[in-house]
Specification:
The protein is built from twelve helices and 13 strands. By secondary structure, the chain is an alpha/beta fold. α6 crosses α10.
Length: about 350
């Protein structure tokens, strides 16, 4: 039986990294030839996702804190303890920023198949940050560096041609049993799904949407934001100041997000960067179009502008507002885009993605 470790910052949070990892582990867990262990740096009481009924879990003692230096120091100690007596054949590290914490005896062990998955993308790194150092170490120690899009692969191949063979594309995927809904063009609600944090741009989503409400005939439209995060109180103040309480609603964390898409006319994505965009793929699979900033890297690999959604210049709030308006004011356009949401490249097929993972581990 092959022993596989998935190393993740926290299994408690409900983000795209955790959701993607849980889909892979829960599928591999169904096969008797794998023994899966999920190792989490952070302490937690409850996991957001199911990682497989036979999957074992190891969790660290780090508590949530804003003191980055304290976390870095403690994380190194924690990793030494977590991996001290753990035996495994392959390790999948969920994020380049975790590499600096891995004990050197593991990094240097050629008998271990070492794989890291980049959830950020080179253009979105902070130079000399943890992710940047993690990449440098990955080039030296990792057997495979998994990226999520072909654009990612091209960028890395050009920047690090010496290590080209280490890089490989395995995109994210969504559950094989996700339900495709019959599109209801009478829905007058928009959904935003993501962490309420700066990189996801929820403030820009609210502000772009608010401009459309100035047109009286569309004042009944609603924007629902799913997610939690540090910007929540600030976003509530925007809603209050702009008197949007009857149009903008905070829904909190939703564990069964795939079941809510039939309530909405389209998904709104206002991220500053998006290494893949799991919710974009999920929305398209469910049958609703997507309006998104054309940020690096994921949206343009999933959205065909004018066919199954709309892409607008990254960071351009006015253009985002116009795109929202063009959809809510044109039922025929909404129907046409929704009709084309089934035109998704086969590379994102659930079983194809799982097979790729089985081939690398």
């Amino acid at each position: 039986m092959k022993k596989i470790v998935f190393f993740i910052s926290s299994a408690a949070t409900g983000g795209g990294i955790q959701r993607s990892a849980s889909m892979i582990t829960s599928e591999l867990d169904k096969e008797e030839k794998y023994s899966i262990t999920v190792v989490s740096l952070y302490n937690y009481d409850k996991r957001k996702y199911d990682y497989g009924k036979n999957t074992k879990h190891l969790k660290g003692s780090i508590e949530s804190t804003n003191n980055a230096k304290k976390i870095i120091y403690k994380a190194k100690q924690e990793c030494r303890n977590l991996f001290l007596n753990l035996e495994f054949d392959s390790i999948i590290i969920e994020g380049l920023g975790l590499i600096p914490f891995i004990p050197k005896k593991i990094l240097r062990n050629k008998a271990i198949n070492k794989i890291v998955r980049d959830h950020t993308g080179y253009s979105n790194f902070k130079k000399y940050g943890l992710t940047w150092f993690g990449l440098k170490m990955s080039l030296k120690y990792m057997d495979r560096i998994i990226v999520l899009t072909k654009e990612n692969l091209l960028e890395y191949s050009q920047l690090f041609s010496k290590y080209r063979d280490k890089f490989m594309v395995i995109p994210n995927t969504v559950s094989s049993n996700i339900k495709r809904f019959s599109y209801n063009s009478n829905n007058k609600k928009i959904c935003f799904i993501g962490r309420l944090s700066n990189e996801k741009g929820p403030d820009m989503a609210i502000e772009a949407f608010s401009k459309v409400l100035n047109v009286n005939e569309y004042s009944e439209w609603k924007l629902d934001l799913y997610g939690t995060g540090p910007m929540l109180n600030y976003l509530k103040s925007i809603v209050h100041d702009k008197k949007l309480e009857r149009n903008v609603f905070f829904k909190g964390y939703e564990s069964n997000i795939k079941d809510i898409y039939n309530k909405y006319a389209f998904l709104l994505v206002s991220s500053k960067f998006e290494s893949f965009g799991l919710v974009i793929l999920e929305a398209l699979k469910a049958g609703i179009p997507v309006v998104s900033f054309d940020c690096n890297y994921g949206p343009r690999s999933l959205i065909k502008d004018g066919e199954n959604g709309l892409l607008v210049t990254n960071g351009d709030k006015e253009e985002l507002s116009k795109a929202i308006y063009s959809l809510i004011s044109n039922e025929n356009l909404r129907n046409q885009l929704a009709k084309n949401t089934d035109q998704i490249d086969s590379e994102f097929d659930y079983f194809k993605v799982i097979t790729k993972w089985e081939n690398v581990i």
